[in-house]
């Protein structure tokens, strides 16, 4: 299976999420975020790695068709494998960043931070 399309998809999602153009929502799964498009959806989740002897987390992307069925699924581990079977961290790092941005968007982190800042940032009260 060629991983060119999944890699391109992650790059586009990361770029557009950074610009605030992707409307991530919390999904039913724990630590899972979802974005819906016209006919299809995508879920991004994190869980224990499945690599034998490895300790840590893995990010999983599930591509859902219009019926809600999983049409494709891949992990950072799949994306990080090179042609010799070695595993790097480039895609792990990208998916980790995307997952964090998706969580912040879905939970309204910027709005909450703005509200807190309005309450605590009282520059008007500085006696000069």
From TrEMBL:
It comes from the Bacteria. This is Uncharacterized protein.
């Amino acid at each position: 299976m060629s991983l060119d399309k999944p890699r391109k998809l992650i790059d586009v999602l990361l770029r557009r999420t950074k610009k605030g153009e992707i409307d991530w929502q919390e999904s039913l799964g724990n630590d899972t975020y979802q974005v819906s498009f016209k006919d299809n959806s995508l879920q991004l989740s994190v869980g224990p790695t499945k690599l034998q002897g490895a300790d840590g987390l893995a990010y999983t992307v599930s591509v859902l068709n219009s019926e809600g069925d999983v049409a494709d699924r891949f992990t950072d581990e799949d994306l990080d494998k090179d042609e010799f079977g070695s595993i790097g961290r480039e895609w792990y790092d990208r998916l980790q960043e995307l997952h964090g941005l998706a969580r912040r968007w879905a939970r309204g982190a910027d709005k909450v931070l703005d509200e807190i800042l309005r309450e605590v940032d009282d520059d008007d009260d500085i006696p000069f």
